[in-house]
Amino acid sequence: MTAILFQATCPSCGARVPFRSAASVMAVCEYCQSTVLREADQVKDQGKMSAVLEDFSPLQIGASGVDQGVGFALVGRIQLQYSDGMWNEWYLLFADGSNGWLSDGSGQYILTRSVGVVPTAPRFEQLSVNKPVFYKTRDFRVTDLRTAQCTGGQGELPFVVGQGWQARVADLRKDQQFLTLDYSEGRTQPEGFAGRAVSLPELHMQLLRDTDQISSSSGNIKGSLQSLECPNCGSPVPYVFGVAEHLVCPACRAEVAIAGDTATVLAKHKELTTLKTALQLGDQGKIAGLDYVLIGIAQMEEVGDADESSLWTEYLLYSTSAGFLWLVDEGASDWQKVTVLNEIPEEKSGYVLWKNERWNLEWRYQGRVMYAVGAFNWRIKIGDTNNIRDYQRGKQTLTAEQNHQEITWSHSEPIAGSIVRTWFGKKQPKPAHPQAKSATKKTQAATPSIDVAHGLIFKWMAGILWLLNLPLILFGSGSLVLTLIATFILWVIAKVSEQKQQEA
C-alpha cells in the first residue's frame, strides 16, 4: 500500500480523504461520494459523484502489482459508458512517483502511461477506424473511436471529473504496442498514453477481490449461470452473471441492458422464427481442459449475396478462468474455433504479417446480424453490419471485422464436428442450415449438388432405356407404353432417393 502524502477532511461529512499521489487534484469521499477538490493545501466540495456500478471486476482500490520491475497501486478509477457498453479506467501510482492507467473492459486489460501532448496527431473528427497515424516514426492503426460519458468515480484522480463528464478517445495499435489519444475537454491536440495489452498474472497483482468478496457485494458469483426475468415479456433469460452487459430475450427478441440489479429494455424487434441450432443456450462443454458455458447465439448472413444459403451461426462461450471464446458453425459439419487477438497483424497490400508469417487476403464481404439470442459483452443489434476481410494461411484464417467505431481481429482454426460433439456431449448435432455456405469459402464446391446429381442419374438411365427400346418400337417389336411406364418409374425412384438424401 502506498503512503499517504496528504490527508484532507471531507467538507461534506467530515470523513478522512487520503491523497497518495502528488499529481492527484481530486478525490471521491468513500463515505458520502462528495467530490473533494485539492488546491494547494485547501480542499473544496465540488458536489456529489455517482457511485461506480458493481461490474464484478477483480480489481479494487488498494490492489497492487509490478510493471517492468516497478511496483504500483490502484488509487482511483472512473467508469465510462458508451452506446454499446462500458469500461473502467483505473488510476495507478507507481513506486517511483510516476502514474499511469489500467483500462479494464470485457476481461481485457491495457496498461498505459502518459507521453504528453501529441501535436502531430490529426483532429478527432479527422480520424477513422483503421486509418494510419504516425507516432515516433511508426504507423499505428486506429482500432477504436469512442465518445463516452463518465457515470461514476472512486478514489483520487489527476483531473477534475464529475457526473456527465465526456471522454473523446481514440485507441490505436501497432503489433503489441498500444496508444490512446485523449481529446477530452475540447482538446484539438490530444494527450497521448502509450502502453500494451497485459494480463493480471503478468502484473503479479495482489489484493484482488476474491470470489467471496465479489459474491457478497453483488449477491451472486461472477461467472455463474443465472436467469433474469425479461422486463418486456417476463420470459426467463439465461445469462452469465457479471459477464454479460446486454441480453436478447429468446422469447420476444427485446434488447435488454443490465446495470447492477436493474434490467432495462433498449429496443424491441419483431418476433423471429426460432432458429434451430446445433448448440443451445446454457450448454456446457470442456475445451482444452477448461469449462465453458454457451451464453450467446447469433446468426449472420453475407450481405448482397443472392444465395440464401450464405449463412453461418456464431456461438459465444465463456470460461471463468479463460474468458471468451467463439465457435462458428458454417454448416455441413464445418466448424471454426475463434479467439479475439490482442496483437493485431501488420497490414500490407493484399496480405498481412502476423507472428512473422504471411497471410494472404482471400475474401472481402459484409456480414449482417440476422438473429441474436442470449447474453453478450456488448450491445448486439439485429441489422448490425460489419465489413469483413479474411486472410488465410493453410487452413487457418485471420479475420478483420470493421465498422465506423472499431476494428477487431480474430484467429480461427477448423474443428471437426465430431470434436464439437465430444466437447458438449452431443450425440448428433444437426447444422443450423444444412446447405449453409462458409463465410470464408466463397467459391462453389467442385461436386454437383444433390438436385443436379440425381437429375443426371435419371437422364443417364432414361437415355439408356430409350436407346435400347427405340429401335424395337420403330420395327414393331417393342412397346411404347411400357417404355413410357419404365421412364416414369425411374423418375419416381430418383425423386424418392433425392428426398431421402435431403432428410439425412
What labels describe this entry?
single chain; 3 domains; 504 residues; mainly beta
Domains, number:
3
- The percent range for strand residues is over 45%
Number of strands: 31
Count of DSSP helices? Answer: 4
Average residue-wise pLDDT: 78
> Main β-sheet: number of strands, strand sense, barrel status?
8 strands, antiparallel, barrel
Rg value: 29 Å
Side-by-side strand order of the widest sheet: 7-8-9-10-15-14-13-12
**Helix fraction bin:** 10-25%
Structural class: mainly beta
Task: Tell the overall outline.
Answer: elongated
Low-confidence stretches: 218-223, 432-454
CA distance, first residue to last residue:
65 Å
Fold and architecture overview:
With 504 residues, this protein is mainly beta. The chain folds into three domains: 193 residues, no CATH class; 213 residues, no CATH class; 54 residues, no CATH class. The strands form four sheets. The protein has an eight-stranded antiparallel β-barrel. Strands 22-23-24-25-31-30-29-28 form an eight-stranded antiparallel beta barrel. Strands 1-2 form a two-stranded antiparallel ribbon. β8 and β9 form a beta hairpin. The radius of gyration is 29 Å and the shape is elongated.
